[in-house]
Specification:
The chain is α+β, with helices and mostly antiparallel strands. 66% of the residues lie in helices and 10% in strands. Its EC number is 2.7.7.65.
């Protein structure tokens, strides 16, 4: 029994250091390799003592057995000292549970960062849309400004050309507006412009685009509309403006009229040519006594 017990124990003690050496060769990233080497030496010497015990069954090599035990004791003490020296550093290494908690915290932080970035991107997009809208909005009236009108006109001309649909534009100018400013002041003049813009916005259709072209001039873009229908809308605008009482102070009654030029887009025109034509129609309306509508009838068939 002693023979087989020592044989099995010695075999195990010899194989364990081999396993550790194999581990070190495959995993050179492991820390404290020298501690493992000391442990391997300790285990190996333990195997030697058991091997000597087997030999001493038949031979009395007690001197060699004593040397093996002494070497084992020395290596054991050295290994113990090293382990106690490194114990605080080993304890400081995070456990798997701590790693798991830290990893969950990192994932949570990462998710919050992703959500914050998404929220920031949404705010940037919303702010960009808002700035673009402000860039194309008239500060006084809240309708489109000249820049917005020009972008809209270009898009509508492209669409009319592509789909062979009619496009009519209307230019409206407040008659004798300078007199309003001179008699009632610029504040009242601004109020008149605001209310005329409000009339145009209410009269125009959802598919139309209305904007302040400059000063007291307005432009109305009417896609899929021929001059016959546009003239009906122009007449309604003219009447509504003429019948409107621009009263902003007690005892104050301001009335204005407007002149309107109307023309239909032709496929061979660019935006400058189209605006020039409608401006000429407006000029004719003013020269005809104002409070008039002039439609361009020289449209190519």
């Amino acid at each position: 029994m002693h023979f087989f017990g020592d044989l099995l124990t010695a075999t195990a003690y010899f194989l364990i250091p081999l396993a550790l050496i194999h581990l070190f060769r495959k995993r050179n990233d492991l820390a404290f390799n020298w501690i493992f080497m000391m442990a391997a030496a300790f285990i190996f010497l333990c195997g030697v003592t058991h091997f000597m015990a087997i030999i001493n069954i038949w031979h009395g090599y007690y001197y060699l057995s004593g040397i093996a035990k002494l070497a084992t004791g020395i290596v054991s003490i050295m290994t113990t000292i090293m382990i106690w020296y490194l114990l605080p550093r080993i304890i400081a290494i995070p456990s798997n549970q701590e790693f798991k908690v830290k990893n969950e915290q990192l994932l949570l932080t990462q998710q919050k960062l992703i959500e914050s970035n998404q929220l920031l991107e949404e705010r940037v997009r919303a702010r960009t849309v808002e700035l673009e809208k402000l860039a194309h909005t008239d500060a006084l009236t809240g309708i489109m400004n000249r820049g917005g009108l020009m972008n809209g006109l270009t898009n509508e001309m492209d669409r009319a050309t592509r789909y062979k649909h009619p496009l009519t534009i209307m230019m409206i100018d407040i008659d004798h507006f300078k007199r309003v400013n001179d008699e009632y002041g610029h504040v009242q003049g601004d109020n008149v412009i605001i209310e005329v813009a409000d009339i145009l916005s209410k009269v125009s259709r959802s598919t139309d685009s209305v904007g302040r072209y400059g000063g007291e001039e307005f432009l109305l873009l009417m896609p899929e509309t021929e001059t016959v229908k546009a003239k009906i809308l122009a007449e309604r605008i003219r009447v509504d403006v003429a019948n409107h009482h621009f009263c902003h102070e007690e005892g104050l009654d301001i009335s204005v009229t407007c002149s309107i030029g109307v023309t239909e887009f032709e496929s061979n025109q660019d935006s400058s040519s189209l605006l020039k034509t409608v401006d000429e129609m407006l000029y004719k309306a003013k020269n005809s006594g104002r409070n008039k509508i002039i439609v361009n009838n020289n449209i190519a068939a």
